[in-house]
Design brief:
The protein is an alpha+beta fold. It is 32% helix and 26% strand. It is built from 21 helices and 31 strands. Strands 2, 3, 4, 5, 10, 19 and 20 form a seven-stranded mixed sheet that branches. α2 (72-90) packs antiparallel against α3 (95-107), α9 packs antiparallel against α19 (548-561) and α11 (291-300) packs antiparallel against α17. The protein is globular. The model is unreliable at 567-579 (pLDDT under 50).
C-alpha cells in the first residue's frame, strides 16, 4: 500500500512538472475556440437609390434549458404558457409537443437547445416577451444567435444580373459575385466555450474583434425602365411561346446599362424566369443585324454612293453550290445599295461583300477586327461569352465562309457585344465598355467612382458613319421595321432573323432567333437597345413582329419618362399668362387673385384643387379632379402643389426647371403603381 501511494505521488509530480503546460494548453484548445463572426453584407442599389439586394437580419433561438437560475418550480409553473406561445407563433408544432420537448431537454441538462431557426426580427420581438424568456439571457435562458439572409426586394427584376454568391460551390454570379470583396466586408472574431452536447457559447474576451460591414454598390440600373423591359419581354415571350429572350438598354455616351432582362421558359410550368444571363453569356449567330459591320467594311474600302444599284436577279445568289435566298420580297433585278440594306437582302449584301473581297478575304476580316468585333468587351460581371470572328487561317474556313459571314452566319457574338457595336455607331464611332456599376459607397459616402472606359476610339471613318446612320434610319423609315416610324421620335436600327444551327443536321428552318438592335432619338442618340427572342413557336418568327414590338415598348417608356430627349418645340405659348391661369389649392388661388385685384368667379367650384379658366370679365375656377389610384393632371400647378398631390398618391417626383408644371411624363388617368417615378418639366 505504501509503495502504491508513493507511485501515485510520483506520477502527480511528473504530470505537474513535465506534462502540465502541454496538458493545460490541450484542455484550453478543447474548451475554448475563436469563431468567425460574419460581417453584414453590403447592399446593392438601383441608380435612383431603390434596394435591389440587401441583407435581412434573421435569428436562431436557443435556450439554456438547464440554467441554474431557472428553478424547477418556476420552470414547471411557466412551461405550459411558453409552449403555448411558441406553438401559436411558429405553428410548426403543437403546444404539447413543445412542452414535452422542453421538459425532456431540461432532464438531459441541455444548455444550448435549439428552439427555432431563421426567425424574423418581428418574431424575435414577440419571443422576448414570452414566459420565462421575458427574464432575459441569464435568468430566462434565452440565447439569440444573429445571422443575415440575402433578399431581393423586387424579386425577378434583373435577378440574374444582380446575381448571387455561393462559397460552398465556388459560384460567383452577376454583381454579387463580381463585387464580393467589397460587399462581404471583414469578418470579426469571437471567443466561445464548449459546453455539453458539443455546443459552443460566447464568453467575454477583451481581444474580441468586431466585424466590419460590407460596402454598398450603386448600379446603373433604372428600376422603372427595368420593370418595363421585363414586362414587355415577358408578355411577348408568352405571346410567341419562345424558349428564351433578352433585352438590354444602354446609355449611348456612357455605356451605362439602364435595363437588362433575361427570361427562360420553364418547360414543366410554362412560366418564364431569370435563370441565365443570355445577354452576357450566350454567343449566337446574329444573322442580318451583322449586315451593318459588313456595310461599314464596304464603306471603308470605297463604296461611296448609296444610290448605286446592284443586280440581285431573282433574289438569290449561289456560292459553290450553296444558295443564299432573300426572304423579305424585294423586287427582282437592280436595286439600290441603300434598299439592299433597308430591305435586308441576303443576296444583295453577300454579293457586294463577295465581289469586293473574294480575292482578298482576309481584308474583310481585318476590317471587322478594326471594329473590335473579335474581342471580348471585358465586362466586370463574370460569364461573358467569347466572340467568334474567324479568319482565313481557321480550319473551318471554306469557299462559302465569306458570303455567309457577311450576312451573320459562321460567326458568333453575344447580344451585349452586338449592342456595344451598334452603340459605337450611335456614339459617333467611339466604342465604350458597358457599365453595370457607378459607385461603391461606405456609410453613404462614395469611396470609389467608375468612369466610362473606351474600347475603341473610332471604329471607322466619319464618312462611313454618316452612311451607316443613313441606312439604319432607312430601315425604320421604309425597310423591315416600318412599324417604328410612327413614333414621335426618330429611331434607327436593324432587324435580324437567323436560323438556328443544329450540330447534326445543319440549319433548322423551324427555329429562329429574332432580334432588333438600334438607337434613339436617331438625330441625337441617347440610348441604344437590343432585343433577342429565341425559338418563337406560334407561327410568327420574323424580327419585325417578334422583337421590334418589345423594342418599341421600352423606347416609348424611356421617351415618356426622360424629358431631356423630347424633340418637340419648347417655345413658350405667348397666350398663356401665369399665374392668372394657374392650377392649385383653391384657397391659395383665391388669395392670389384677391391680392392682385383680379375679378374671380368662385361660385363654380368648392373643390380642394382648382384650375383657373378665362371667363368674359373674370377668372373662373373649375374643379381639378384628383382620383385615388390614377395619375392626376398637374399641368399648370406650382412645384410644391404638384409634389404634394403626386407624393400623396405614392409617386416619386423628379423636377426639371423652375416655375409651373408644363409637362409630365406619366399620362393623366394612367394607373398608379406605388413607387413609380414621374418626371415634371417646369417653366415660368
Amino acid at each position: 500500500m505504501l509503495l502504491f501511494g508513493l507511485a501515485i505521488i510520483v506520477k502527480v509530480i511528473y504530470i505537474q512538472v513535465y506534462e502540465g503546460n502541454e496538458l493545460l494548453e490541450k484542455a484550453q484548445k478543447q474548451t475554448l475556440k475563436y469563431f468567425n463572426v460574419e460581417a453584414v453584407r453590403g447592399n446593392i442599389y438601383a441608380s435612383d437609390g431603390s434596394l435591389l439586394a440587401t441583407s435581412v437580419p434573421i435569428f436562431d433561438i436557443r435556450m439554456d434549458v438547464a440554467s441554474p437560475l431557472i428553478s424547477d418550480a418556476y420552470f414547471l409553473n411557466h412551461i405550459d404558457a411558453l409552449a403555448r406561445e411558441l406553438a401559436n407563433l411558429f405553428g410548426d408544432k403543437s403546444k404539447n409537443q413543445y412542452k414535452k420537448q422542453l421538459i425532456s431537454e431540461r432532464k438531459k441538462r441541455n444548455r444550448y437547445y435549439l428552439v427555432k431557426r431563421n426567425i424574423a426580427y418581428d418574431q424575435l420581438k414577440k419571443v422576448k416577451n414570452f414566459p420565462i424568456f421575458e427574464r432575459g439571457k441569464y435568468k430566462g435562458g434565452l440565447i439569440i444567435i444573429p445571422k443575415t439572409k440575402r433578399q431581393k426586394p423586387f424579386g425577378l427584376l434583373a435577378e440574374r444580373t444582380i446575381g448571387y454568391e455561393n462559397l460552398n460551390e465556388n459560384l460567383f454570379v452577376g454583381i454579387e459575385g463580381s463585387y464580393s470583396k467589397y460587399l462581404s466586408g471583414e469578418n470579426g472574431k469571437q471567443l466561445r466555450r464548449r459546453i455539453n452536447n458539443g455546443n459552443w457559447i460566447p464568453v467575454f474576451d477583451e481581444n474580441e474583434i468586431e466585424p466590419e460591414d460590407g460596402k454598398d454598390i450603386i448600379t446603373t440600373i433604372d428600376l422603372n425602365i427595368q420593370d418595363v423591359a421585363e414586362s414587355a419581354l415577358y408578355n411577348h415571350l408568352i405571346e410567341h411561346q419562345a424558349k428564351w429572350g433578352c433585352a438590354v438598354l444602354m446609355e449611348v455616351e456612357t455605356g451605362e446599362i439602364k435595363a437588362i432582362a433575361n427570361l427562360t421558359k420553364d418547360q414543366s410550368s410554362g412560366k418564364y424566369y431569370e435563370t441565365y444571363n443570355y445577354a452576357v453569356g450566350t454567343s449566337i449567330e446574329p444573322g442580318s443585324t451583322f449586315k451593318l459591320p459588313s456595310m461599314i467594311a464596304l464603306f471603308e474600302d470605297g463604296l461611296e454612293n448609296l444610290e448605286d444599284t446592284i443586280d440581285i436577279g431573282k433574289g438569290f445568289a449561289v456560292y459553290s453550290g450553296l444558295t443564299i435566298q432573300d426572304v423579305h420580297g424585294i423586287r427582282d433585278g437592280r436595286v439600290s445599295i441603300k434598299e439592299v440594306f433597308e430591305k435586308s437582302s441576303n443576296a444583295g449584301v453577300s454579293t457586294l461583300v463577295y465581289n469586293k473581297y473574294v480575292s482578298q478575304p482576309q481584308r474583310y476580316i481585318d476590317r471587322l477586327y478594326d471594329m473590335s468585333l473579335h474581342e471580348k468587351i471585358g465586362l466586370e460581371i463574370p460569364g461573358e461569352g467569347k466572340p467568334f470572328i474567324k479568319d482565313t487561317k481557321n480550319s473551318s474556313w471554306s469557299k462559302v465562309s465569306l458570303p455567309f459571314m457577311s450576312i451573320g452566319y459562321e460567326i458568333q457574338l453575344t447580344p451585349l457585344q452586338l449592342l456595344t457595336f451598334y452603340n459605337a455607331v450611335a456614339n459617333n464611332g467611339k466604342m465604350v465598355k458597358p457599365m453595370f456599376v457607378k459607385e461603391i459607397q461606405c456609410a453613404g459616402k462614395t469611396i470609389q467612382e467608375f468612369k466610362t472606359e473606351i474600347i475603341n476610339k473610332s471604329i471607322c471613318s466619319q464618312k462611313s458613319l454618316e452612311k451607316a446612320h443613313e441606312i439604319l434610319e432607312g430601315v425604320v423609315e421604309s425597310g423591315t421595321a416600318t412599324s417604328l416610324n410612327k413614333s414621335p421620335y426618330k429611331i434607327a436600327g436593324k432587324t435580324g432573323t437567323a436560323q438556328i444551327a443544329n450540330k447534326s443536321s445543319g440549319y433548322d428552318k423551324q427555329n429562329y432567333n429574332a432580334s432588333f438592335v438600334g438607337y434613339f432619338p436617331a438625330d441625337a442618340p441617347k440610348y441604344s437597345c437590343i432585343v433577342v427572342v429565341s425559338r418563337p413557336s406560334t407561327g410568327r418568327y420574323y424580327a419585325s413582329s417578334v422583337a421590334v414590338p418589345v423594342f418599341n415598348e421600352i423606347a416609348d417608356k424611356v421617351y415618356a419618362t426622360n424629358l431631356e430627349i423630347h424633340q418637340e418645340n419648347e417655345i413658350e405659348d405667348p397666350n398663356i399668362d401665369y399665374p392668372i391661369y394657374a392650377t392649385g389649392y383653391q384657397k391659395e388661388l383665391e388669395q392670389i387673385y384677391k391680392t392682385l385685384n383680379i375679378p374671380l368667379d368662385t361660385l363654380s367650384t368648392n373643390a380642394e384643387w382648382a384650375i383657373a379658366m378665362k371667363a368674359d370679365s373674370s377668372v373662373r375656377l373649375d374643379t381639378r379632379i384628383i382620383k385615388e389610384g390614377q395619375v392626376p393632371n398637374v399641368k399648370g400647378m406650382g412645384a410644391k402643389d404638384a409634389i404634394y398631390v403626386l407624393e400623396n398618391l405614392g409617386l416619386i417626383v423628379k423636377l426639371r426647371g423652375r416655375g409651373f408644371v408644363r409637362e409630365q411624363s406619366l399620362s393623366p388617368g394612367a394607373r398608379i403603381k406605388k413607387g413609380n417615378m414621374i418626371y415634371l418639366r417646369l417653366a415660368v
